């Protein structure tokens, strides 16, 4: 193709893509926000422990700047495909909503990159061929890494902070470039799985895959412009998009908490549920492990109190805490609605919701979502245990090197989880990777941890196998006796509920279970601790 033909094709694709994006989602959304919530608070944030805020008008002003600068970057570098992703290397999440809204207004798919992880980013760059990256100038280490393969094209001010736009060389190859156009033109954002259960996979998420998720949860949680939603999930973890879009589609406010603050349970608690001012947060989404870093006494006295500001507490990404845990930490007169969320990144985050209430089942599928249980031969299981798959006719994402021509709806994705189904009720059993054979018996590591967590005095537990040694790590309540005197009681419970092969060889106490960057229990670190003991 001649250069003129390619440019004409690019302009046509840009026009049709932007029309498609605007008419489906952003035009109605942004128009509603501008007219109804212009003078409403969009973001709460902290500067030196002082609570500050930005209005929606500030958010739009920032988004317009970002949109204009990105548009200029693409116009001046017309060798760059308009459909490739905008990479976001941002440490301070205060600026994320304006940058994301700027990308949405411009019809640009985006992907968050890891400010700490070179390997993580290299995989994204290689697979998605990211030509444009937006970053903060204050992140000197990030900028240093960019200089290896990108050049600084532009920089501009956003709320007293300097943002930079970095450009790389164009992607070469006509046929491959056209294929990328066909796939990326339908995308909203991309995210990379953590790789905790295998090789990291890049998931490209179309708008029509994530929007039903947001609409269903917004209605289920009854979110309005009066709500304040906690934004504390790492942006490389897809529940971040749920928090952001729930606020953006309802005119609600976001309370932004940094990852540094969140890393300290005490600082995190003081920011979200302070004692020196009225708490703001009404909707909070966390992994169970992050939530359970607060002690039961802290939760009962600060979070799930009689007059708690928190309307909705949604926990997902791990096994929902036991009724015994909630009996310790939920005030009898507390009215917070509890939800158990379940899903996988490959089907754009959440797939089912249980609640309100203490429900250990997986609940009901979200809109446009299908659940299916299969046995080892691939036959559907209607009553019994099997492998859980999540599918949809419309909530379809591209995983890894897939393209649309390879997928025929409905598309089902394996979750890697074993569930028991009866009368349409799905109960989580455990990760397939956590089902092992020991002494000729089947052992479910998740079940060992679940039984241990039911023991009075245990806040949380996790079980791992290393070098034929079965180790149980427990986090005890503050007022519980030390493990030496507690071990007999716990062992008696485990022996009464589990087969002999499932009883741990070692029970070890930890102050906190180690977490990975997405807030889930880090099994690799536990195995390392176990190896040091044995």
UniProtKB/TrEMBL annotation:
**Transmembrane stretches, by residue range?**
none
Q: Where is the AMP-dependent synthetase/ligase domain?
A: 83-392
Which SUPFAM superfamilies does this UniProt record tie to the protein? Answer: Acetyl-CoA synthetase-like
One biological process GO term for this chain? amino acid activation for nonribosomal peptide biosynthetic process
Q: Which InterPro entries match?
A: AMP-bd_C_sf, AMP-dep_synth/lig_dom, ANL_N_sf, Beta-ala_Activ/Resist
In Pfam terms, one family for this protein is AMP-binding
What is the name attached to this protein's record?
AMP-dependent synthetase/ligase domain-containing protein
Task: Please give the organism.
Answer: Homalodisca liturata
